[in-house]
C-alpha cells in the first residue's frame, strides 16, 4: 500500500505576516483621519439641529407672548436649569422643549453639543452666548433684557419684576432678522470683550461656530480672531 508523505500545513511565512501587518497599519493610518472628519461632521450636524430646535422653541414662545422674546436672560447660557433660575434660557423655554422645570437642577440635552461635551470637563458650563448688542436705529439694545441688572432695592435682575425686560422680535426687523445673529457657541477665543473663565478653550468645531439667527435659521459662521 502506497502512502503519501506527510506535508506540513500551508501557512504564512514570517515575511508574509509582516507584509500583512504593514498593509493593515497603512490602511488604519489612511482611514483614521477620514473617520475623524466624519465624526466631527456628524457632531456639528447634531449641534446645528439642536440650535434649530431651540430656535423653533423661541419662535413658539414669541407667538404665545405677544411677540416678546424670552427674558430677561443671562448673557452666557449653560445647559443647566431649574424653576428658580429665571435668567436661564432652558428655564424660559421649558414648556416648548418638553423640559420638566422644577425645583431640582436638571440638564437640557438639546443645549449640549456633542463636540463640546467631548472636550470637557470644564470649570464652567457656559456653552452659548446671546447677542445683547443689536443695533436698532443706530442704538445698541439688548433684545433679551438683562438678567445681570438689579433694581433700586438691589434685587436680582431676573424674574417677572426685573428692571429690563425682553423686547419684541419685530423691533429687530430693521436690523435684518436673517442677518443678525441671536445665539452662538461660546469659547475663550470668542470675539467678545468679556467671556467667562473656565469654558471651552477654543471653538469646538474648529473653523466654524454654529450660530442661530433671529429668523431662526442656523449656519456655520467662520471663526474670526479675537480682537
Quick overview of this protein structure:
The protein is of the alpha+beta class and 227 residues long. Helix content is 26%, strand content 14%.
What does this structure look like?
This protein is an alpha+beta fold and 227 residues long. The protein has one domain (14-222). It contains three helices and nine strands, in the order H-E-E-H-E-H-E-E-E-E-E-E. The protein has helices at residues 14-64, 89-92, 114-118; strands spanning 76-77, 80-81, 106-107, 128-130, 134-136, 139-141, 181-185, 208-213, 218-222. Strands 1-4-7-8-9 form a five-stranded antiparallel beta sheet, with helices on one face. A two-stranded antiparallel ribbon has the order 2-3. The N and C termini lie far apart (94 Å). The model has no long low-confidence stretch (mean pLDDT 85).
Q: What's the rounded overall pLDDT mean?
A: 85
The major sheet is characterized as: 5 strands, antiparallel
Order of helices and strands: HEEHEHEEEEEE
Question: What is the SS-derived class?
Answer: alpha+beta
**CA radius of gyration:** 26 Å
Q: Hey, roughly how much beta strand do the residues contain?
A: 5-15%
Low-confidence regions: none
Structure keywords:
alpha+beta; 227 residues; 3 helices; 5-stranded antiparallel β-sheet; 9 strands; two-stranded antiparallel ribbon; elongated
Secondary-structure map:
Blueprint: H1 14-64, E1 76-77, E2 80-81, H2 89-92, E3 106-107, H3 114-118, E4 128-130, E5 134-136, E6 139-141, E7 181-185, E8 208-213, E9 218-222
